[in-house]
Design brief:
This protein has 546 residues and is an alpha/beta fold. It contains 17 helices and 24 strands. The protein is 29% helix and 20% strand. The structure holds 1-O-alpha-D-glucopyranosyl-D-fructose (TEU) and calcium ion.
Length: 546
């Protein structure tokens, strides 16, 4: 059995992590050169987003060949070296399996386009008139989810970009091909897998219009998804490896099933409900202040129910699709350091496996791109145009992108205060924020009180205390909207976690009696706490142990 319940995972977006050969694009040798740094965080696994052959319309989530390395990132030898060097340091690699769709440049799709019946059945083609898509479903990146192919007189389904065609999992040959991919990487020594939007793989039998939504209710956690996952896991023998499924618009009931060990599906799930509390009416492209009460309720429900049903959460704030959390729920100006540390504490003391996304451990912020030409992401660029068409001004659209674009999480890793932040010798593929002058690895490494060193302590606490790994969870101060607090308990040991989500001092509804408690970590370096105590400073975070 692997140790996923005790582990912390570090996520790398290779294109933006470290460039070893001066072309402005991060690469695999770049990652290898930073393995000692990653090890210094205390993490157990490294999940890298895809670096397989791809036209990179969606930065590698459009895979053209699952078993070849994109030369832009390196070679197969580099990848083997990465796996070996990480293993020498006691870290396992998790690879990203994008199995809901392939690039339209994939050999299978190319054969399908030429009319090869076998391969047409690898994808989801439907008959239809050129001006009448089979359903009204919308792509997650904007526009119709269907594209017409005149030579075939058929439409194909793409839930994401038009160059990402959805695979037909109902075809057993497709399932066999994908199992081969897993076996290939397992053979190479990969220790785990992340499965991209894996709850979207099972499409319904009948395709019908969605009169109340964009179609997602027909294919999210679809009819055979659990069967398909069980089969994939059993036939590739990965039940004892660490696996995480990315679940899009999922439900608690399904995530229990995906992650309960008895079901033999996955180790854990990512869900995104807590990262939609600042979407107005669920719409990512409408700005709204975060609803902290909702955020607390979501964590409470998911944490307590998953515990009750023996499921397991991946816990996280950041990834390559999300804006930076300190800019989003924290306070990147006046309380940059305090709020970044507080947000880190919230996640790392929870029940579940914590993920750290590159640069999060430095308190990296949204880059503040000002012009549309600074953006690279296909979703951002599509929505910029959709927003303009919907009547927003250029300024409004850019303001929205500035807060919501996925590129906010994709600016290069800030290694030092030098030119190009030590990421590259050359101008990078995407801009670097000026704050790399003080938000960077080199400076924070030397500063005892830095966000970086605070993350290291949090990771270490999880290693030290079984109650943090495995303790049950109970939420406190539920009615105090800006206080995010909980208690973990195991075998008579207790950990109390208190976080202030606001820039104000908060008087707790009840006094905390600190007598007999030890302070494990706090972002105001409170040191010894004694007696009764009831005021939380702005963005304060305190972890107590009894
Ligand atoms: O993301 C899935 C996904 O649902 C997000 O793209 C989400 O729709 C978006 O960020 C919210 O606005 C995964 C990958 O993480 C992402 O990078 C890929 O683009 C996507 O799948 C398609 O493979
Ligand atoms: Ca490079």
């Amino acid at each position: 059995m692997n140790n996923f319940k005790q582990s912390t995972i570090y996520q790398i977006y290779p294109k933006s992590f470290c460039d070893s050969n001066g072309d402005g694009i991060g690469d695999i040798q770049g990652i290898i050169s930073k393995l000692d740094y990653i090890k210094s965080l205390g993490v157990d696994y490294i999940w890298s987003t895809p670096f397989f052959v791809s036209p990179l319309n969606d930065n590698g989530y459009d895979v053209e060949d699952y078993q070849k390395i994109n030369p832009l990132f390196g070679t197969m030898e580099d990848v083997e070296e990465l796996i070996a060097r990480a293993e020498e340091r006691g870290m396992g690699l998790m690879f990203d399996m994008v199995f809901n769709h392939t690039s339209t440049r994939h050999e299978w799709f190319q054969k399908a386009l030429s009319g090869d019946k076998k391969y047409m059945d690898y994808y989801i083609f439907k008959d239809g008139e050129p001006d009448m898509p089979p359903t009204n479903w919308q792509s997650k990146f904007g526009g119709s989810a269907w594209e017409y192919v005149p030579s075939l007189k058929k439409w194909y389904l793409h839930l994401f970009d038009v160059t990402q065609a959805d695979l037909n999992w109902n075809n057993p040959d497709v399932r066999e091909e994908l199992k081969e991919v897993i076996r290939f990487w397992k053979e190479k020594g990969v220790k785990g897998f992340r499965f991209d939007v894996v709850n979207l793989i099972s499409k319904p039998k009948i395709f019908e219009n969605d009169t109340i939504g964009d179609g997602r209710r027909f294919y999210s956690d679809g009819p055979h998804v659990h069967e398909f996952l069980k089969e994939l896991v059993a036939d590739t023998g990965i039940e004892d490896m660490i696996t995480v499924g990315e679940m899009s618009s999922t439900s608690l009931e399904h995530c229990v099933k995906y992650s309960n060990p008895d079901e033999k599906e996955l180790s854990m799930c990512f869900n995104f409900h807590h990262l939609k509390v600042d979407y107005k009416d669920g719409n990512k492209w409408e700005l709204m202040d975060p609803d902290y009460q909702r955020l607390k309720e979501l964590f409470e429900t998911w944490q307590t129910e998953m515990e009750k049903e023996n499921g397991w959460n991946a816990v996280f704030w950041c990834n390559h699709d999300q804006p930076r959390i300190v800019s989003r729920l924290g306070n990147e100006k006046k309380y940059w350091k305090e709020s970044a540390k507080m947000l880190a504490t919230c996640i790392h003391m929870l029940r579940g496996t914590p993920y750290i996304y590159q640069g999060e451990e430095l308190g990296m912020t949204n880059p503040g791109y000002k012009e549309i030409c600074e953006y690279r992401d296909v979703e951002s660029i599509n929505y910029y145009h959709i927003l303009l068409e919907s009547g927003k001004t250029k300024e409004e659209a850019l303001e929205i992108l500035g807060q919501r674009s996925r590129d906010n999480g994709r600016s290069p890793m800030q290694w030092n205060s030098g030119k190009y932040a030590g990421f590259s010798e050359k101008e990078p593929w995407i801009g670097i924020p000026v704050n790399h002058k003080y938000i960077n690895v080199e400076d924070e490494d030397k500063d005892e009180d830095s966000i970086l060193n605070y993350y290291r302590k949090l990771v270490d606490l999880r290693k030290q205390y079984k109650v943090i790994q495995d303790g049950s969870i109970e939420f406190l101060f539920q009615e105090q909207t800006e206080v995010f607090a909980y208690k973990r308990s195991l075998d008579g040991q207790e950990v109390i976690v208190l976080n202030n989500f606001s820039a104000r001092e908060i008087l707790l509804a009840e006094v905390i009696s600190c007598t007999g408690y030890e302070c494990l970590i706090s972002n105001y370096n409170r040191g010894k706490l004694e007696g009764d105590w009831k005021v939380l400073r702005p963005y304060e975070s305190i972890v107590l142990l009894k």
